[in-house]
């Protein structure tokens, strides 16, 4: 009992000692940062009041003005040459167009760097004062690097956010404050269970996770595009490999990020059970769609390029994703149908075992018309349409006697339902009307016979 109490007090004392040391580290980091800010302010003030009008400074300013002026003129001429050549690509949109637009915008700073860095190296080798040249060379270089990285990895909004973050780091480095800020962030610690993390650890983990995640997604997209260009694999197999590849890349990125901040993987395996249970409840639909998507891709019941009916939606499956299938209708509308619906609901796949689809078109003729002639003319009209198969040939059947018409059913087969059903039906009916009109087959019109009797006639009868 006494031993347990002793160990408890010893652990508490060690914890207090660690906390005290952390507090002292934080205080010292704040003092160092304050001293550094004061030094930067004094040097900036002295430079403005004493060095700004010196000959060396004026010489640097003149060189910088000449560099930026010449760079602007050259960029303007080069932009006038490249813009017409790239106009067609930029009008089509996409990543290639975005890259060309960004390159046209970056011509000025890139050309400036071509002049600034050689001048910086020559002035340094000659022992000349080049503080301004160094400052502008670093700033322009950081600007170009930030724009290239953010354009390659992020969408416009996140590109601006990430650029602001990198600009803050670059500015701190240029003014010599980066080391002190890093020391201060490292001194700001927090304890999560048995793991002690600093704010610097969290920021580094977030930065690495963001960059690695975007690289993983880009790699997955590149892999999907390469698979799509390959004709050796089926569309469903390519979609499955792309989905599994992206999932594995995201998992690897997450594990690497946790390793960077020093999270114990053994502790994570214990925690993952409870976390997985909570996520399973909260994200049940998401995981259901994910598993349904894998099942669809494995059993190949629905593949990209298939023509399907789902409820009121009829169209071509353009892609299979982790959460949904994209179906484009004939009027250009794109429906994103959850994968779970494709398994739980009735789906008519016109392309599952065969791409041949039979279409039935009802036709009515007036009583008194030659039924055999009308059936023959209807079959002839269908046979003349290029999209309709010759084998099996179109057929017309007598299906009923209606109140006002003799009901026929014209049946024919097509192999390209993704090109539309209504349009081929319209073409057939137009030909049927022309042949009926030419051969005297009447289209029925509702008729009613009205008899008028007078009262005198009734009394006489």
UniProtKB/TrEMBL annotation:
Annotated compartments: Cell membrane
A matching Pfam family: MS_channel_3rd
InterPro entries per UniProt: LSM_dom_sf, MS_channel_C, MscS-like_channel, MscS_beta-dom_sf, MscS_channel_2nd, MscS_channel_C_sf, MscS_channel_TM-2
Domain Mechanosensitive ion channel MscS C-terminal, chain residue ranges per copy: 359-443
Tree of life domain: Bacteria
Entry similarity comment: Belongs to the MscS (TC 1.A.23) family.
GO molecular function: mechanosensitive monoatomic ion channel activity
Protein name per Swiss-Prot or TrEMBL: Mechanosensitive ion channel protein
Residues spanning the membrane: 57-75, 103-120, 132-150, 157-178, 198-217, 238-261, 267-287
Keyword terms of this UniProt record: Cell membrane, Membrane, Transmembrane, Transmembrane helix
CC per GO annotation: plasma membrane
Annotated membrane topology: Multi-pass membrane protein
């Amino acid at each position: 009992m006494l031993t347990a109490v002793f160990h408890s007090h010893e652990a508490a004392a060690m914890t207090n000692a660690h906390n005290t040391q952390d507090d002292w580290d934080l205080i010292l980091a704040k003092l160092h940062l304050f001293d550094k800010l004061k030094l930067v302010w004094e040097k900036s003030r002295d430079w403005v009041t004493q060095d700004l009008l010196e000959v060396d400074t004026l010489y640097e300013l003149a060189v910088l003005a000449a560099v930026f002026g010449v760079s602007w003129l050259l960029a303007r001429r080069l932009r006038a040459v490249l813009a017409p050549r790239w106009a067609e690509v930029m009008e089509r949109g996409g990543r290639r167009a975005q890259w060309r637009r960004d390159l046209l915008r970056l011509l000025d700073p890139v050309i400036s760097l071509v002049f600034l860095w050689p001048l910086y190296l020559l002035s340094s080798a000659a022992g000349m004062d080049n503080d301004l040249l160094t400052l502008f060379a670093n700033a322009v270089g950081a600007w170009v690097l930030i724009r290239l990285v953010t354009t390659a990895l992020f969408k416009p909004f996140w590109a601006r956010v990430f650029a602001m973050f990198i600009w803050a780091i670059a500015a701190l480095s240029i003014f010599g404050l980066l080391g002190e800020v890093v020391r201060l962030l490292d001194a700001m610690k927090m304890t999560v269970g048995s793991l002690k993390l600093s704010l610097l650890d969290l920021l580094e983990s977030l930065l690495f996770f963001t960059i690695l995640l975007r690289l993983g997604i880009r790699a997955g997209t590149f892999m999907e595009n390469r698979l799509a260009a390959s004709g050796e694999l089926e569309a469903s197999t390519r979609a499955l490999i792309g989905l599994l590849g992206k999932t594995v890349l995201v998992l690897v990125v997450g594990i690497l990020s946790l390793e960077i901040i020093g999270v114990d993987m053994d502790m994570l395996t214990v925690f993952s059970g409870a976390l997985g249970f909570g996520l399973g409840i909260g994200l049940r639909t998401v995981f259901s769609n994910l598993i349904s998507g894998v099942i669809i891709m494995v059993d190949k019941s629905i593949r990209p390029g298939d023509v399907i009916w789902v409820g009121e939606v009829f169209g071509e499956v353009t892609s299979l994703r982790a959460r949904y299938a994209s179906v484009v209708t004939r009027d250009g509308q794109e429906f994103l149908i959850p994968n779970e619906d494709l398994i739980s609901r009735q789906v008519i796949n016109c392309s599952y075992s065969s791409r041949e689809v039979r279409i039935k078109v009802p036709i009515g003729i007036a009583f008194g018309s030659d039924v055999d002639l009308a059936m023959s003319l209807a079959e002839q009209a269908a046979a003349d349409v290029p999209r309709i198969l010759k084998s099996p040939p179109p057929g017309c059947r007598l299906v009923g006697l209606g109140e006002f018409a003799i009901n026929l059913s014209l049946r024919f087969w097509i192999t390209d339902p993704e090109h539309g059903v209504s349009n081929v039906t319209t073409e057939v009916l137009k030909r049927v009307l022309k042949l009926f009109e030419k051969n005297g087959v009447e289209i029925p019109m509702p008729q009613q016979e009205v008899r008028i009797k007078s009262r005198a006639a009734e009394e006489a009868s």
